[in-house]
């Protein structure tokens, strides 16, 4: 336990911010370049996770447990979002026989 | 200290593999590995409760849901129509622009002090439970209603209506 705690001492907070920004940018790129709806939702999960990790790092750095409680709430929200989103994908697939995001442009006037 | 950089490198590598792999099932599996590296990050930060919750909820529940839907829709092959190269290129450029903007705004900050555990038992279950059930009791109960609503909505959406078909 002590060695694990010793391990993290010395990583600057800036490196955490940079790392989480990189993961977030990868998630945004994934949303932009893929056409499969399921992979787009996975990229959104990647973005949510990067923000979670950053909140935890800030919480540990400031010694305030509220940040970790917020991460817990974000995880509950992500679970709800994935359940509803995948149900919508299943319904869309049943109607259009495809998970291509371009098949969903019927709302365009 | 170097453990963090090694695990961060693994996270970035597997996140890139997630969005660039053609096969959707491989993509989900790479995402599982990415979430596992995030669990290691939580352990390094001594946030034990979040590490366990991340392990169970993300790697256990959400990823199984993704895999289940992929298998249910029979999409485990390279059936994805590709976007044109121009759109891909523009998407990658836009993502890199976002990253450069974030990193550039980071440079204004002076070199920060290193992360230190001021209170080592902040992420333990006992401490977080006390905070969760005293300061955040109302949001906790409301999130239970949110989960119930999501469950009802998911069942309602995905159910095959026999009258309509």
Automatic annotation (TrEMBL), chain A:
It is a multi-pass membrane protein. GO terms for cellular component: NADH dehydrogenase complex; plasma membrane. GO terms for biological process: ATP synthesis coupled electron transport. It is found in: Cell membrane; Membrane. Keywords: Cell membrane, Membrane, NAD, Quinone, Translocase, Transmembrane, Transmembrane helix, Transport. The chain crosses the membrane at residues 15-33, 38-58, 70-93. It catalyses: a quinone + NADH + 5 H(+)(in) = a quinol + NAD(+) + 4 H(+)(out). Its EC number is 7.1.1.-. Gene3D superfamilies: 1.10.287.3510. Pfam families: Oxidored_q2. Belongs to the complex I subunit 4L family. NDH-1 shuttles electrons from NADH, via FMN and iron-sulfur (Fe-S) centers, to quinones in the respiratory chain. The immediate electron acceptor for the enzyme in this species is believed to be a menaquinone. Couples the redox reaction to proton translocation (for every two electrons transferred, four hydrogen ions are translocated across the cytoplasmic membrane), and thus conserves the redox energy in a proton gradient. NDH-1 is composed of 14 different subunits. Subunits NuoA, H, J, K, L, M, N constitute the membrane sector of the complex. This is NADH-quinone oxidoreductase subunit K. The gene is nuoK.
Automatic annotation (TrEMBL), chain B:
The keyword Protein transport does not apply. One of its GO terms (molecular function) is quinone binding. Its main location: membrane. The chain crosses the membrane at residues 6-21, 28-49, 55-75, 87-109, 136-158. It is found in: Cell membrane. It catalyses: a quinone + NADH + 5 H(+)(in) = a quinol + NAD(+) + 4 H(+)(out). GO terms for cellular component: plasma membrane. Keywords: Cell membrane, Membrane, NAD, Quinone, Transmembrane, Transmembrane helix. It is an enzyme of class 7 (translocase). It is a multi-pass membrane protein. Its EC number is 7.1.1.-. It comes from the Bacteria. PANTHER family: NADH-UBIQUINONE OXIDOREDUCTASE CHAIN 6. NDH-1 shuttles electrons from NADH, via FMN and iron-sulfur (Fe-S) centers, to quinones in the respiratory chain. Couples the redox reaction to proton translocation (for every two electrons transferred, four hydrogen ions are translocated across the cytoplasmic membrane), and thus conserves the redox energy in a proton gradient. Belongs to the complex I subunit 6 family. This is NADH-quinone oxidoreductase subunit J. It comes from Parapedobacter pyrenivorans. The gene is nuoJ.
């Amino acid at each position: 336990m002590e060695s694990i705690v010793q391990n993290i001492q010395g990583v600057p907070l800036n490196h955490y911010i940079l790392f989480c920004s990189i993961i977030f940018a990868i998630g945004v790129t994934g949303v932009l370049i893929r056409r499969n709806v399921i992979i787009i939702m996975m990229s959104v999960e990647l973005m949510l996770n990067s923000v979670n990790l950053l909140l935890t790092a800030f919480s540990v750095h400031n010694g305030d447990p509220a940040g970790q409680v917020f991460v817990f709430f974000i995880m509950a929200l992500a679970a709800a979002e994935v359940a509803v989103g995948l149900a919508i994908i299943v319904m869309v697939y049943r109607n259009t026989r495809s998970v291509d995001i371009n098949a969903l442009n019927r709302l365009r006037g | 200290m170097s453990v963090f950089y090694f695990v961060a490198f693994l996270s970035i590598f597997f996140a890139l593999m997630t969005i660039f792999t053609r096969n959707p099932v491989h993509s989900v599996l790479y995402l599982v590995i990415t979430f596992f590296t995030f669990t290691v990050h939580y352990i390094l930060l001594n946030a034990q409760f979040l590490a366990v919750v991340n392990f169970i909820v993300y790697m256990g529940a959400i990823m199984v849901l993704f895999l289940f839907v992929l298998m249910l829709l029979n999409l485990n092959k390279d059936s994805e129509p590709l976007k044109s190269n121009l759109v891909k290129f523009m998407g990658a450029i836009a993502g890199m622009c976002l990253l450069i903007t974030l990193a550039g705004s980071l440079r204004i900050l002076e070199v920060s002090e290193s992360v230190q555990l001021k209170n080592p038992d902040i992420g333990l279950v006992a401490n977080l439970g006390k905070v969760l059930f005293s300061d955040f009791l109302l949001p906790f109960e409301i999130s239970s209603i949110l989960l119930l609503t999501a469950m009802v909505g998911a069942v309602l959406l995905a159910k095959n209506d026999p009258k309509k078909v």
